[in-house]
Each structure stands twice: as structure tokens, then as C-alpha cells.
Write a structure and sequence with these properties.
Layout (H helix, E strand, L loop, with lengths): L2 H27 L9 H21 L4 H4 L2 H25 L5 H24 L63
Helix pairs in contact: 1-2, 1-5, 2-4, 4-5
């Protein structure tokens, strides 16, 4: 599976986790009882997204210079959000109270990580050039697109230490000017 597809699957998982997380957050703001079981699908989708993103980054490590550090930065932010989510789950299960600052930090890190990941993926290609099914379909100098002639091969460089024209390249014959006769005196 190509790493770009895995990264898009990760992004879909993060969107699903975000939708469930938003529902949990609005329930908390309305002072409704937030069921602990609601955190399980949220954590499942977030965890699946983290695994897909991590595998995509590992598979694409040799091509990392094409995207820069953005997917790794997004992964670090999302891992920090996951740590906050585990702490929120523990506090909710233990005491039932969720600190507002921890919930805000969890949500902010997750949203920022998803935005960075989306912008990195939308603006760049995670794979090198797509591989055509038929090598004849590749437009190269030896196989130009239809309607264009193949460009001429450039001449080879002269051998080291060679003086004068290369024997492979004939010297153009140019007419030599004839010297003018000296004016007659007399």
C-alpha cells in the first residue's frame, strides 16, 4: 500500500475521531453526563490514525526531503494529543471530573496536528513520480510525446588533453578571404 494512501486513511481516521471528540466536548459543555464509553470509539479512530501515519512516515522516510518535516511535526503533535487523551480518560474514569485546560490542550494539539498534516499532504506528493503501466507511455528524449521530434543528441565532450577540433565533429569549411594585391606604384 503506498504511503500516501496510508496517510489519507490516517487523515480520515483523525476526522472521525475529531467528530466523536467534538460530540463529547459539546456534551461536556452542556453539563450533560459524558459517557465513558464514548471515549472508546474516539480513541480507536485516533489510535488507528496514529498507526497509519507512523507506518506512512516510516515507509516514506527516504523521500522525507520532498515533504520536509511537516508530517513528523504533525505526528509529534498528535502523539502529544494522544497523551492528553489518555490522561483525560484516566481522570474521567477515576474522578469523573475533566480539567478544562487539559481538554483544551488535547483538542488544540489534535486540531493543529491534523491541519498541519492536511496541508502537507494537499500541497505535496508523498511518492516519487507515478510509475506508468507501460514504459512506452513515458515521455523521454528517446520517446517524445506525439507530434514532437526527438531532440538531437549533444556532441560528446572532447577527451582530456585534446587540442583542436574533435575528429567526430568535422570542421566547417568556410571560404578564406584572399589577400588583396598591394597597390601598384608608379
Amino acid at each position: 500500500m503506498p504511503p500516501q494512501l496510508l496517510a489519507w486513511i490516517a487523515l480520515g481516521c483523525f476526522f472521525a475521531a475529531g467528530a466523536i471528540g467534538a460530540a463529547l466536548l459539546f456534551s461536556h459543555w452542556r453539563r450533560l453526563r459524558v459517557p465513558l464509553a464514548g471515549a472508546f470509539p474516539h480513541g480507536f479512530f485516533a489510535g488507528a490514525g496514529l498507526i497509519c501515519l507512523l507506518v506512512a512516515i516510516i515507509m516514506n522516510w527516504g523521500e522525507q526531503d520532498r515533504l520536509g518535516p511537516w508530517p513528523v511535526i504533525a505526528l509529534v503533535l498528535l502523539l502529544a494529543a494522544a497523551g492528553g487523551g489518555v490522561a483525560l480518560f484516566y481522570l474521567h474514569a477515576r474522578a469523573g471530573a475533566i480539567p478544562l485546560w487539559l481538554g483544551a490542550a488535547h483538542a488544540s494539539a489534535a486540531v493543529l496536528g491534523v491541519i498541519i498534516l492536511f496541508l502537507a499532504m494537499a500541497g505535496q506528493s508523498w511518492t516519487s513520480e507515478p510509475v506508468p503501466l507501460n514504459p512506452v507511455d513515458v515521455d523521454t528524449p528517446a520517446n517524445p510525446p506525439p507530434g514532437q521530434a526527438a531532440p538531437a543528441e549533444p556532441p560528446p565532450p572532447p577527451p582530456a588533453g585534446a587540442t583542436g577540433p574533435s575528429p567526430a565533429l568535422p570542421m566547417p569549411i568556410m571560404p578564406q578571404p584572399t589577400p588583396a594585391a598591394p597597390p601598384a606604384r608608379g
